[in-house]
Amino acid sequence: MLVGFNYPVKPMKFHKEKIDKLITLEKENNLVNHILTSLFNKGKTIAKKNTNEYIIWTSNYWVGFFYPIFKINFDKDGEITNIKSELSLNGKLWRVILSSLLILFFVFFLIIPIIENFKNFDFSMLIILGVFSLLAFGFIWVFKKFYENETKNLLNELKILVGLDSKETIEEKENKKSEWTLKRILLRVFIYPFALFIIFISCYGIYKGTFFRGFFGVLIAVAFLYTDIKIIWKKRKTKAKNIQN
User: Which of 63, 101, 104, 202 could bond 214 through an S-S bridge, CB–CB 3.0 to 4.6 Å?
Assistant: First the structure.
């Protein structure tokens, strides 16, 4: 059973009818309802229905506030003509909040102290600024990858459930994508050590008593490493199987 959109559907004539069977709640696409989704409606498929367009979304514990919405357009017969995805209003709100907090942190705890102590400036200050910049970039990149992967997975599940695509075809397309392009290799060279560093710092935080933040850091880093290694292993296994056949 697919985990994103609940309630597998029986074959029907139109895409719209199949999607209607997936929907568990109908709500307006506004900020309040998206906040409520993150807090109380995890795992439910929610929609704002119009005649020729549905806006649907679902949230789970992996993406939290940063889940996508899908805008689905239909023709007069109820068949899908287009699907677009974007970050939910709640996700956009938290993106602004977290970006603002990050900027304030850099300004008040790093940049201003460096300016105030300019006469006593040494290169260790630049090193500290660089380390925190890398940490910030790493966190942003990891969350971005989680969002992109979750969006892709939910979209694929939706396509399978309404009959736009099959699980076998999607897996075949994914397996054809190389995991060893120059871009992905360079990202792994940076991200893997960063993830291990996060695990180390988080474990140290747990040891010092900051259990929640430490556990959250370990969870994010381990989840990323596990997911990435699992994808590589799965593609290698599939490729070996195809060669044998």
Answer: 202
